[in-house]
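Example S7 (C-alpha cells).
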C-alpha cells in the first residue's frame, strides 16, 4: 500500500516541478524525496515522472493517478482538521491583506483566529492585491483578503462584500458643484495607487468604458498616502467611501459625484486549492464574520 509520505512526495514534486523544490518545501533531503517517489513507482509498477528534462513531468500513468493522490491527501487533511481539537492545531499560517483591511478590521480577525487556533503562528503580509494573489498562486501565502482583480480568479474564494468608492478632493483644489462629468474629473491630477493595486486595475477599465483618457496622474504606494495628498490639494482621489467618511465629515475632503459612479471594490477571501484548503476555508469564514471597513479610529487617518 502506498504511504502518506510517498504520496506527499509525488504531490509536491508535481506541484513544484523539481525534486529539489519539493525537498525544500517538505524540509527533507532531495535523496529522501527521490527515494519516496521511487518506492511509490515500484509499488504501482509504473513510472510516475519523466525525468529526462530539468523540470520533471508526469508520464501518462502519472497523469492518470495524480488527481486521485491529491484527493486522498486532501481527505486525510480534512479528517485531521475535523477530528482534532483546535487547541492542538499548530503550524505557521501566512496570509496577505491590503492596507485597507490592515487599518480597519484585521486586528479583530487576528484575535478570532488566535482564539480558535491558539497554537497557530500567524504571519501577516500587507501589500497590493496583485502581488498578494501571485503569492497565493506560488504558495508563499495560504490565504489572501483583498479586492479581486478583473478576470477569472481561478482560486477557491469567499465573497466578503463590496465597498463603494467615491471621488474625493480638498476644497482648495475644487470648490464648485459636487457633481462633475467624468471628462471633467480628468482635468485635475489624479491620485492613484500603484499598478499593482486593485483600484488602479478597476479605474483604468472604468475610464476606458467611459471613453475618457487619463491625463495627469500621481502614483502612490498606499491608500493613506493618496488620501493625505488629496487633503493637501494635490489632486482628485478615488477612495473607499465609508472608510474615509470621517475626513469628509471633518471638511478635510469633499465627495465629488460622477455618472457613472466609480467602481466598487469587491473583496474576497481567497485561498489555496490544496491540503491547506480546510483550515483556509474556516479562516475565510471568520473573515466574512469580522469584516467591517470603518476605520479603527480617526487618529489613524487624521
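Recovered sequence:
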Amino acid at each position: 500500500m502506498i504511504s502518506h509520505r510517498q504520496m506527499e512526495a509525488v504531490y509536491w514534486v508535481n506541484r513544484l516541478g523539481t525534486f529539489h523544490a519539493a525537498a525544500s518545501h517538505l524540509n527533507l533531503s532531495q535523496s529522501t524525496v527521490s527515494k519516496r517517489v521511487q518506492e511509490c513507482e515500484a509499488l504501482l509498477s509504473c513510472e510516475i515522472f519523466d525525468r529526462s528534462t530539468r523540470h520533471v513531468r508526469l508520464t501518462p500513468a502519472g497523469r492518470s493517478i495524480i488527481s486521485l493522490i491529491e484527493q486522498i491527501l486532501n481527505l486525510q487533511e480534512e479528517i485531521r482538521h475535523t477530528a482534532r481539537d483546535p487547541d492542538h492545531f499548530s503550524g505557521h499560517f501566512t496570509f496577505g491583506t491590503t492596507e485597507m483591511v490592515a487599518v480597519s478590521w484585521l486586528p479583530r480577525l487576528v484575535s478570532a483566529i488566535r482564539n480558535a487556533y491558539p497554537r497557530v503562528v500567524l504571519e501577516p503580509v500587507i501589500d497590493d492585491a496583485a502581488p498578494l494573489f501571485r503569492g497565493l498562486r506560488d504558495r508563499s501565502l495560504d490565504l489572501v483578503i483583498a479586492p479581486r482583480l478583473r478576470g477569472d480568479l481561478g482560486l477557491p474564494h469567499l465573497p466578503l462584500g463590496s465597498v463603494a468608492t467615491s471621488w474625493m478632493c480638498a476644497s482648495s483644489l475644487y470648490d464648485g458643484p459636487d457633481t462633475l462629468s467624468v471628462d471633467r474629473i480628468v482635468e485635475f491630477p489624479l491620485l492613484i495607487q500603484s499598478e499593482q493595486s486593485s483600484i488602479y486595475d478597476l479605474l483604468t477599465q472604468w475610464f476606458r468604458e467611459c471613453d475618457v483618457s487619463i491625463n495627469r496622474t500621481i502614483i502612490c504606494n498606499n491608500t493613506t498616502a493618496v488620501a493625505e495628498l488629496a487633503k493637501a490639494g494635490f489632486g482628485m482621489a478615488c477612495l473607499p467611501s465609508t472608510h474615509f467618511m470621517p475626513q469628509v465629515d471633518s471638511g478635510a475632503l469633499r465627495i465629488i459625484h460622477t455618472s457613472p459612479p466609480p467602481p466598487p471594490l469587491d473583496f474576497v477571501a481567497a485561498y489555496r486549492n490544496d491540503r491547506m484548503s480546510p483550515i483556509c476555508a474556516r479562516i475565510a469564514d471568520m473573515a466574512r464574520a469580522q469584516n467591517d471597513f470603518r476605520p479603527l479610529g480617526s487618529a489613524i487617518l487624521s
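Notes on this example. The mean pLDDT is 87.
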